[in-house]
Design goal:
mainly beta; Pnp Oxidase, Chain A; seven-stranded antiparallel sheet; three-stranded antiparallel sheet; 4 helices; binds flavin mononucleotide
Length: 186
């Protein structure tokens, strides 16, 4: 028996993207973004309301995106419940914000994977903004690379947001090969 739950989608997984930026005065900031995702191999969309981060990205035309890992769930959540309008989250979090060599935005060193983006497009809708970021560099901690130099998400242990219960979950298990698991049905 199936039930109809209405129009609020139950989309899973949602990313836990930590979006970092600088303000006009050069103060670093970071926020937690679940409503975001990959558009193409080198473009990311983030959908954000009226936040300090929104002002920063409009001012600087750049941001970085670090998918949060299980080792930093406390800091990742903090970035989503405190605002840079009231507190310096970079200092309060104890994380290390360093200037990207590629874009006008900070990289948070403790997150093992970061996409460095320039703003390619800004779309307005209903008081919110969708920023399309073009990835100009991806920086990675060698600790999460495999023997062939590929990012190993099994080592990284990224977390995802489960909006039905407002919890973070870890992803990692491999259950099949892509472009492979369906072959018995060809
Ligand atoms: C799990 C989680 C996911 C979130 N996703 C989004 C999002 O996709 N878009 C958004 O505008 N705010 C989102 N937020 C809220 C912002 O992260 C929060 O308002 C934050 O304080 C903004 O920081 P800032 O004012 O320093 O930029 C999320 C918060 C949490 C905890």
């Amino acid at each position: 028996m199936r039930k109809n739950l209405g129009s609020a989608g139950e989309l899973f997984p949602q990313s836990v993207f930590i979006v970092a930026s600088y303000d006009d005065a050069g103060v670093p900031n970071a926020m937690n973004v679940a409503w975001g995702g990959e558009c193409t191999r080198n473009e990311i969309a983030i959908n954000i309301g009226d936040h300090k981060t929104t002002e920063n990205i409009l001012a600087r035309g750049a941001f970085t995106v670090a998918p949060a890992d299980a080792a930093h769930v406390m800091e990742a959540d903090y970035f989503g419940i405190a605002t840079g309008r009231k507190v310096n989250k970079a200092e309060a979090s104890g994380m290390t914000f360093v200037r990207s060599a590629f874009v006008d935005a900070p990289v948070i060193e403790e997150f093992p994977l970061t996409m460095e983006c320039i703003v390619k497009d800004v779309q307005d809708w209903g008081g919110e903004k969708r920023f399309i970021g073009e990835i100009v560099n991806t920086s990675v901690d060698e600790e999460i690379l495999d023997d062939e130099g590929r990012v190993d998400f099994g080592k990284m242990r990224p977390i995802v947001y489960d909006s039905t219960r407002r919890i973070y979950r870890v992803v990692g298990d491999v259950v099949g090969g892509a472009w492979e698991a369906g072959k018995p049905l060809l």
